[in-house]
């Protein structure tokens, strides 16, 4: 009985082993065990530095799987084929993308799966020539930052080289010459500004002196006009005192008065003309002054004659005749 029972136990063990083998084959043919699904990712644009077998596969920060294997593609040397397994209950869609993320402190990497807000159909079918469904490669922010930093480093290096070339001995000498020329130009401009200031002060002083001269001439003209009026009044009084020659004297005095008024009008006109033509220069002023001096001399001579009305009308007396002159 013992050999028969031993054979029964051995047969049962063999049958159990065969059942387990068949179940394992079925599990492998269905693509997973314990509710997992396998996917393939082809990375070309991202670096897999820090990625290891068994590294996490996350979605929205939650671990949903792990890295099963990775190798360089036999058909593309710039491509790395990574196989991952993900839980069956994870919604992997056709528009899901995969990126490599890594810790800046430890350098360890993992794979993040991203699905847009509007998810597409579920990813279940493997494309032709692939053993598993393929998740598309996404764009990593860290890689973009690294590329930008690399481009910035290259640009900075080029800028430093250009700056070094620009600051060479020849360029330094040229820059120093340029600085010296600019300094000389500034000094010349300052000197010219000082000359302009002195010229403006001289023009201001000249204009002030010319204004004072015009005011003095105006006062002189008014004084001459007042003298003419005084002479006219004196002639009128003299005419009233000379009875025998009153008629002739009145006529002469009338003409003299008219001449005095005309002289007053001319003096006033000359003053007004001087005011409007003050900017024309001092030449006309000197001519007008000369004419006024002549007029003043004429008036003085006329006044001298009017002191003796009889002599003005009948001629000078014998006492007033000079040497060699005779009475008319």
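-> sequence recovered:
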């Amino acid at each position: 009985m013992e050999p028969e029972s031993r054979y029964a136990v051995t047969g049962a063990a063999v049958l159990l082993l065969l059942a387990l083998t068949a179940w394992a084959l079925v599990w492998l043919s269905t693509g997973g065990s314990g509710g997992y699904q396998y996917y393939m990712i082809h990375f070309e644009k991202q670096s897999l530095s820090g990625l290891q077998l068994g590294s996490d596969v996350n979605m929205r920060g939650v671990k949903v799987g792990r890295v099963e294997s990775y190798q360089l593609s036999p058909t593309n040397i710039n491509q790395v084929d990574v196989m991952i397994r993900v839980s069956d209950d994870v919604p992997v869609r056709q528009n899901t993308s995969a990126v490599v993320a890594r810790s800046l402190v430890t350098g360890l990497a993992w794979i993040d799966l991203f699905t847009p807000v509007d998810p597409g159909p579920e990813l279940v079918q493997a494309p032709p020539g692939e053993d598993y469904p393929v998740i598309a490669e996404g764009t990593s922010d860290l890689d973009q930052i690294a590329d930008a930093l690399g481009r910035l480093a290259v640009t900075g290096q080029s800028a430093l080289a250009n700056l070094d070339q620009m600051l060479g001995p020849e360029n330094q000498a040229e820059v120093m010459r340029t600085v010296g020329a600019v300094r000389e130009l500034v000094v010349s401009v300052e000197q010219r500004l000082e000359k302009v200031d002195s010229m403006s002060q001289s023009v201001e002083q000249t204009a002030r002196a010319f204004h004072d001269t015009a005011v003095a001439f105006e006062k002189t003209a008014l004084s001459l006009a007042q003298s003419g009026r005084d002479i006219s009044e004196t002639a009128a009084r003299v005419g009233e005192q000379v009875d025998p020659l009153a008629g002739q004297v009145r006529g002469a005095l009338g003409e003299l008065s008219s001449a005095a008024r005309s002289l007053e009008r001319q003096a006033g006109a000359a003053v007004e003309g001087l005011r409007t033509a003050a900017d024309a220069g001092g030449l006309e002023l000197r001519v007008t002054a000369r004419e006024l001096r002549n007029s003043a001399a004429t008036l003085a001579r006329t006044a001298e004659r009017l002191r003796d009305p009889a002599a003005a009308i009948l001629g000078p007396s014998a006492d007033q005749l000079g040497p060699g002159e005779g009475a008319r």
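The chain has a mean pLDDT of 76.
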